[in-house]
Automatic annotation (TrEMBL):
Domain HAMP: 193-245
Enzymatic class: transferase
The protein, known as: histidine kinase
UniProt keyword list: Kinase, Membrane, Phosphoprotein, Signal, Transferase, Transmembrane, Transmembrane helix, Two-component regulatory system
Signal peptide: 1-26
Organism in which the protein naturally occurs: Dehalococcoides mccartyi (strain CBDB1)
The protein's Enzyme Commission number: 2.7.13.3
Amino acid sequence: MSRLSYKIFGALLLTVLLSVGLTSFAANQLTASQFRQYIIRGNNEFITSVESTLGTYYAQYQSWNNVDNILVQLLGSNGGRLVLSNAGGLILADTENKWVGHLTDEYNLSDGNTVSVSGTAAGYFYWLGSDISASGSGYGKGMHNGQNSTGNSAVTIITEPQQQLLDEMNRSIWISGALAGLAALGLGLLLANQIIRPINILNRSARQIASGKLSQRVKVNSRDELGELAESFNHMAKNLENNEQSRQRLLADIAHELRTPLTVIEGTVDGMLDGVFAADTHHLTTIKEESATLTRLIKDLRDISLAESGKLKLEMAQVDIADIVQRQARQASILAKDKSISLITDISSGSSAITGDAIRLNQITSNLLSNALRHTPTGGQITLSLKNMLYQGKPGVMVSVADTGEGIPPADLPHIFDRFYRVTTSRARSEGGSGLGLAIVKEMTEAHGGYVWAESTLGKGSTFNYWLPVSRG
Ligand code: ADP
């Protein structure tokens, strides 16, 4: 049993013992007192009937002669003992025939029940028996209402069968209390086990996760707080697993991206050292280009990691996005011309003042334009447009870069903004990048409170749009 089980069991045991003990004790007290009241009522009736019978007897015979039989008859099955004395305290009759002829004082019988005839005491009778308040031991005197003449509590006569009944009742109370306690304890343990079991399962699973088994999940059976805890646990485990998988993928991707330019540099340098390649401009340019690729890759990685961790510092200022778009269009037009691509700029007049980081906004537009240039064949067309647009009810500007390139397969379209994602049908690596360009565009746009999305028709071309909120005022 676990430590929590011990605690629950201990708490349960204590609660059951206390509640059952107290309830049984209270029930016992209540039964004894009710039973006493019941006995007193019966005794009162008996004493009254003895008083009246003896009174009638004395009124009829004007003496106590032969009263013994009456006394025996009166006592009947009531139990105890009846003793009668005359007004002077001389005992005349005794159902046990022991004290006749003696004085009541000798037996400490000072306080008897008066038999009055025509207003005067004709005698006293004493009903002696077991005293309920003295656990049935010794003799007691039965009086009206269980009280003697001085008002103190007097004895209550109780017969043996009555005492047996009381004992029986008390025993039953204790036994049923103990049985109820056992049942409560059993049921409580069953319920406690239901609480502890899922906790143990969660505990085991948490240890498995800690030891690196991230595929570990727990079964959610209940809809209570423990069920919610298990659900949160599974959610946490899934996130951990996803993060670990993407970390491993990222490392593999980075290693892969670094390897190609490094292999080229190493091969070229080795070739030059071995005298296979001449240390001429051509080979040195190759080394320079591959080094530039490495520098760009490292810069991109740094940008993306800063943006993803929310640590990318944006130099925010009032900028006119139309100016940025036009500047990028001018730069792209040189390359476009080289490839005989017509570059059309369509900037509708409207509000284009936004709050943003000019360098990053240039980077976004430049990335999209260089992708468009790369994917548009000779003789194709690129349209760069800017217009005002509401996005989810908010005013902003939308910049679109539309090309007449090969397009993106629908299966790839949802993933092109993922890190290192590259469309497999895309052209040779020399034409493509590291698969980080669009991921950077997405992070940068979102850091500006904007959105980016792409539309594409395979074989016809693609349009990349980004939207940014305009400055208020
Ligand atoms: P890269 O730097 O390798 O181009 P990007 O993140 O910019 O990576 O692009 C991701 C993928 O989307 C690439 O595989 C690329 O082929 C594809 N892609 C990007 N822009 C276009 C476009 N204008 N037309 C067709 N495919 C594109």
